[in-house]
Amino acid sequence: MAFMKNAWVEWIKAFLIAAILAVLVRVVLFAPVVVEGPSMLPTLEDNDHLIVSKINYTIGEPERFDIIVFHATERRDYIKRVIGVPGDHVAVENDELYINGERVEEPYLEERKQDMPDSHILTQDFTLEQVTEEGYETVPEGHVFVLGDNRNNSTDSRMFGVVPMDQIVGEAVLTYWPLERIRIVLE
User: Fold this and answer.
1) What is the pTM of this model?
2) CATH of the domain at 81
3) Which tens digits make up the pLDDT trace of 161-172?
């Protein structure tokens, strides 16, 4: 009888430890996120399920071209690509990205550009000054400038300005559903 009681106590302890670890992993380290909408096509598709690392930006800062999840409103999170980090001047001219006056390749857009008719462009011309209400010349400290990969169908920094880093949930690291789209997202 004492053996059965000890076995139950050990099972309860093991279950409690597992539950606490699961909560810690979910709250502190990783979060599941579901992509809603076409703004990150073709990189991410509507209804892709992602694992987002919350720890990456606790120990570091977002880097250019990271795919991040951030709080866009109290009730809604967005998934976008970091294009500008603090100190960067961002502009697009003739469908080409310029960071600090230098042309920057965007290989993740090639598939999308190839699917478009020759007369269409993916990204309308803009400068950081034109799209930020404050007229920033460079991305301010503590903020990032984000764009969706589906540039002609994305609500992003061109509409709502720079994103405060304290609104960033984390970095997308892995798609796990649907099964045929399982892959590492990190660029």
Assistant:
1) 0.84
2) 2.10.109.10
3) 999 999 999 999
